[in-house]
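ARCHIVE CARD
SHELF: 3
SLOT: left
DATA:
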Amino acid sequence: MPSPEREILDFGFDAFNRGDFEAAVRYFHPGIVWRDPAEVPDASEHHGPDQVRALWDSFSEQWTGMRMDPVEFQEDGERTLVRVHFSGAGRESGAPMELEFFQVWTIRDLQARQVDSFMSRDLAERALHG
């Protein structure tokens, strides 16, 4: 049986992939900090569920069929590393895009408090055990 933290992650990814961003943030703490991968241009932090939803809304303006599928979980206390497969197609170009990235979720008291995203597994694993 999955841990409660894993159930929260499964619920959130499922809701995101249905396009139900409101449900996807159900277990987000009001003060959640969501960090973009430092390796991407214009990387920034998003504070609170409203800013995270706004980020996702901007993604959905650029992509159709957008999905973030978790393919691997590695739990370490209140932190969980998730290997994520992103897929979608450019809204204007129709060009398909797929990429893999990593997230370290901090879940405390059944609320997501922080999400740090990385393009590198090595950096994600350091954050997980950091």
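SLOT: right
DATA:
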Amino acid sequence: HGLVNTNPVLNYDGRIISKAITAIREALTERPAQQQEPVAWMEDCADFWKTTKLQDMTQAQWESLCDGCGKCCLHKIEDEEDAGAVYYTKVACRLLDTATAQCCDYDNRKTKVIGCTVLTSDNIHEFYWLPSTCAYRRLAEGEGLPKWHPLRSGDPTSTRKLGRSVAGLCLSENDIKEEDYEEHIVNWVI
């Protein structure tokens, strides 16, 4: 086939995706949102991403850029015959909670998962496959953050509430054989 893994055969069906997103939204509105402690630097550095270069951000600022979509945790397949063509699957890293799109062991992910995506300001350009909605990619390319991003909306759950995450749409790699990943290619990651 010419496809290799870099990190039923599913055809995009808007109705299925729409139903899943509706179910996620309903689930999120039925349970109270987790209360998060305010981050001190956010109070002093409103809109820091507009004035601070990626390489000059503090670790806390850098981490806050992640909108929690989980798209970087999906396995991707690269077409060997068409270098650079990357296809997302709906198969997620074993550490990703498929219901919330959050890593179950974020602090230890690099030692538990070989090849885990670890973005830095020095290597951001190596990750050409990042989705167009990714804050790291957008800022590296001179774009701003989308209105729904938690830093702009003020709501840490806005990514999930608006159906911008993989929560409820992906499968754990624990349940799928690697040779079957190609059967789970999706086109809803942009």
